[in-house]
Design brief:
Blueprint: H1 2-20, H2 23-85, H3 89-176, H4 182-204, H5 207-234, H6 251-259
Helix pairs in contact: 2-3
Length: 260
């Protein structure tokens, strides 16, 4: 049971970590790590090539020493032969001993030269392998850098597409939100208008409404009277309608009334 829980927690942490990691930072980290490995490989390859170069110098000196020892051994042998021909036994012994000593030195120099040649052969192969490794790793680093640029471009495209998707989703949500229609607005206006007219109608039938109407009529009459007063002062014609004259009486009807 504990192992199942631990496996679940590991998977959960891994998934959460993957979501939290920025792909651009991961790319930069991969490239930096590759550059570090490339630099380490170059340093190691430089040591291998430097070792071969040192062996070249040692090989040249060993070859010179072996050649010098060989020539000196030859000279000693010649000197010993000359002393023997001259009947100089002491000189012959001296130069023979010197030749033996030089021959031993020559043998040591030649053995050292042979050993250095073997080491140099190995070092030369290793140096070529190191150069090939550096060259191949440099090519892989260039490929990785190119791949990084390609992935960064794809990442930017993905971000742009996500932004567009979010904008489209926002637009769709805004358009799908249930907003008030024109019919609903019209119904609301008509309802408020009807309620206002109903309140006015109810106000007119109440004592307060009648009183308000009377006050308004009195105010209008007073205002008309003031206007007529001002027109009279200014000598202007009155705007009030002329009073209607009483109807004329019929003379016949008047006579009949008098006789009665």
């Amino acid at each position: 049971m504990f192992q199942r829980i631990w496996a679940y927690l590991k998977a959960l942490f891994s998934t959460t970590a993957d979501k939290a990691m920025d792909p651009q930072i991961e790319l930069e980290a991969a490239v930096n790590e590759a550059k570090k490995r490339d630099q380490d490989l170059r340093n190691q390859a430089a040591k291998v090539i430097a070792h071969r170069t040192q062996l070249e110098s040692q090989l040249e000196r060993a070859a010179d020493d072996a050649g010098e020892a060989r020539e000196m051994t030859k000279q000693a042998l010649l000197k010993a032969d000359e002393a023997r021909a001259a009947g100089d036994a002491a000189g012959e012994a001296k130069w023979t001993t010197a030749a033996q000593s030089l021959a031993m030195k020559m043998q040591a120099s030649e053995n050292n030269l042979a050993s250095l040649r073997e080491q140099y052969a190995v070092a030369e192969v290793q140096a070529e392998q190191a150069k090939d490794a550096v060259q191949q790793n440099a090519m892989r680093l260039q490929e990785l850098s190119a791949r990084r640029m390609e992935l960064l471009g794809q990442l930017e495209q993905a971000k742009m597409q996500e932004t567009v998707n979010d904008a489209v989703a926002t637009m769709s949500t805004s358009m799908s939100d249930p907003g008030p229609s024109l019919d609903q607005v019209e119904q609301k206006i008509e309802r408020r208008k009807a309620e206002a007219m109903a309140r006015a109608e109810l106000h007119e039938v109440t004592p307060e409404g009648a009183e308000s109407e009377l006050r308004a009529a009195v105010n209008v009459a007073q205002a008309d009277a003031k206007l007529e007063e001002l027109r009279a002062e200014l000598g202007l014609a009155s705007s009030a309608p002329a009073p209607t004259p009483p109807p004329a009486l019929d003379p016949l009807a008047e006579g009949e009334t008098t006789e009665t």
